Amino acid sequence: METVNKLGRILLVEDDPKDVELTLTALEEYNLANEVIVARDGEEALEYLYSRGKFKTRSSDNPAVMLLDLKLPKVDGLEVLKQIKSEEKLRAIPVVVLTSSREEKDMVASYRLGVNAYVVKPVDFHEFVNAIKELGVFWAVINEPPPGSVRK
Amino acid sequence: MSQPKLQLHFAHSAILRYGLAVASVTIALAIAFILEHHEFHRGAIPLFLLAVALSAWYGGVGPAMLAIVLSTLSFDYYFTPPFHSLRFTLEDVPAFFFLLTFGALITGFSAVRRRLEAELLQARDRLEIEVAERTQQASLLNLTHDTIFVRDMNDVITYWNRGAEELYGWPPKEAIGKSSHDLLRTVFPSPRDDIRAELLRTGRWEGELKHAKADGTEVVVSSRWSLRRDEQERPVAVLETNNDITVRKRREQQIEGLNQELAKRSTELEAINKELEAFAYSVSHDLRAPLRHIAGFTELLQKKISSVVDEKSNRYLAMILDAAKRMGNLIDDLLAFSRIGRAETQKTLFSLTQLVREALAEGRQDAEGRNIAWKIGALPDFYGDRSMLRLVLVNLISNAIKFTRTRTQAEIEIGCADGNTDDLVVFVRDNGVGFDMKYVNKLFGVFQRLHDSDAFEGTGIGLATVQRIIHRHGGKVWAEGVVDGGATIYFSAPKPRGHLWKP
Questions:
Q1: Measured distance CA(A132)–CA(A127) in Å, rounded
Q2: What is the mean pLDDT of chain B?
């Protein structure tokens, strides 16, 4: 498929396995799921980004987009966001906060830290699938990622 | 004020004083003649000296001199040979010498005595005037209700006014002569040496002292000290003026106590609010996630099996989805409602007419395809949080649109009712399905609904939100309704007063 060839790598940072499954299902539905890395907490996400720990041997390219949950074990989403945006070689990675929280202070904090988009996970499955699809299509297909990102 | 006897000593009339000299010499002469007649010689000189002494004592220096002259002449004329002649011989020199010397001495002593006496009198008069002035000042100080006393540099009380007696309970005679700080058991706010140093440096001191009264109770006074110096600028006394501030002090302490209590309470409230916030956050995040999973996986399940299971099973799946969606809405509404309670109100003065127009624009979608007659009356300016008030109007208008759905010709009126002088009253009236007045209390409760959700959708939080916002603005919300006869929702709020127009 044409789109698959151009698909960027998505880094999904999400601790809830059910959410992971739903998100992957939604991405699969639109053939966007073949290059998704899942990190289960903030620490794992950072390990991936810095090619540490179990990601020591990964290819050095950055993901085309990072879907980041805020409420995460160990290192929370805002902290991950803060580290990425203050790191010269990671700053360019587009980060989309994908969270259940509609709290204003989370939004304010995220935007202040330089998030590229903020999406509240809809309860309704159709809306959820739509949101994920649109995110995936936009960031992994339509958007031209910064140089040095994986694009198959 | 001089006494009469003393006045005689200083007879002012010169005639009287000199007459006294002449008379005493004449009397002395007469007595000398009588003695001479009885063969008693040598009586004349003592008698003349007596006359001189009398004249000097009662008449002064001048009359004394006159008496000396007259006595000398009389003695020479009558008692020294040649008699009845003013000529005198060498033999008489000792007698004259004696007479003149003693006369002069007596006059001299008398003059000194009189001068001393005059000075004494002057001093006494000055003293009397001063005493009078002081007495008057003291009685003036007694008039004031302030507590005033004077103490010397050893803190010994020398003056004690009536105010001091009234406050402390000791009469002047018991207080005067005592050390003030011992008597009053003074408690100083700062080291005593510092206070004394300030007093000596600046001449005054002010501060709060604790004193003990005669009955043993404690009194707090606001104390002002003034230093008195003598002509050589040496400090001699301290005037202490005290005002009883015990009651004020106690109130201040009470207020302080209340303030502390208030601060504690508000800290507690803040903590509770924080907890609530954390709770709301967790509700927002943690409750929505499983809900999303229920909905998501049910939907996936539905997709997989809808073609193979019967209609009933499909209906169950649809109901699960519907319930999950509804719970999601409830959680969202509840969060919005709790946010209204926590958010700061940002009050400005704005036009309600303009705000109603905006709210109507928002409700237009719901009113599409409907036949609604709008009647918007004149509306006043409103002082409050504009976005919150907007939520109030949006809620009320969408309710009115919703509950007139069954009417072929809906009528919705928004207007301003007669309030009192302090409050303005706004209402939203419709000709919809209305409600039974016996359930009016349930109207504004959270999740309270008077209609089943099949007939009219909604979570039952709209009017609760309205009430919460209006309460936060210091107003009231109430409703009137008749079953199938429409409803009117009123809200009141304090009229804008002296607030600058901020468009």
A1: 9
A2: 85
Domain ranges of chain B: 4-134, 144-244, 254-339, 344-494
Question: Is any Cβ of chain A less than 8 angstroms from the Cβ of B377?
Answer: no
pLDDT at residue B404 above 80?
Answer: yes
The Cα–Cα gap between B234 and B247 comes to 38
Order of strands, sheet of B204-212, starting from the edge strand that comes earlier in the sequence? B157-160, B147-152, B235-244, B218-229, B204-212
CATH number for the domain including A65? 3.40.50.2300
- Closest residue, chain B, to A20 (C-alpha): B293
- Residues contacting A1, CB < 8 A, separation 6+: A31
Are A124 and B328 inside 8 Å of each other by CB? yes
Per-residue CA distances from B179 to A118, B151, B170 (Å): 81, 8, 13
Architecture, CATH, for domain B344-494: 2-Layer Sandwich (3.30)
Provide the CA A104 distance to its chain's centre, in angstroms: 21
Summarize pLDDT for B448-472 with one digit per residue, the tens.
Answer: 777 776 677 777 788 888 998 998 8
Q: For residue A34, is it within any domain?
A: yes
B318 contact residues in A (CB cutoff 8 A) = none
What's the topology of domain B144-244? Beta-Lactamase (3.30.450)
Q: Which residues of A touch B (CB under 8 A)?
A: 16, 18-19, 22, 25, 70-71, 99-103, 121-126, 128
Please indicate, yes or no, if residue A149 is contained in any of the structural domains. no
Of B281, B300, B332, the CB nearest to A101: B281
Contacts of A71 in chain B (CB under 8 A): 285
Give the pairing type, strands B423-430 and B410-417.
antiparallel
Cα three-residue angle A69-A74-A75, rounded to 5 degrees: 55
* CA B132/CA B112 separation, integer angstroms: 30
Q: DSSP secondary-structure letter at B191?
A: -
Query: Looking at B358-421, which runs of residues are DSSP E strands?
Result: 372-376, 381-385, 410-417
- Phi, psi for B363 (deg, rounded to 5): -85, -5
Token duo for residue B264: 């504690």
Chain A residue numbers with beta carbons less than 8 Å from the beta carbon of B280 are: 103
User: What is the arithmetic mean of pLDDT over B482-490?
Assistant: 90
**A147 in a domain, yes or no?**
no
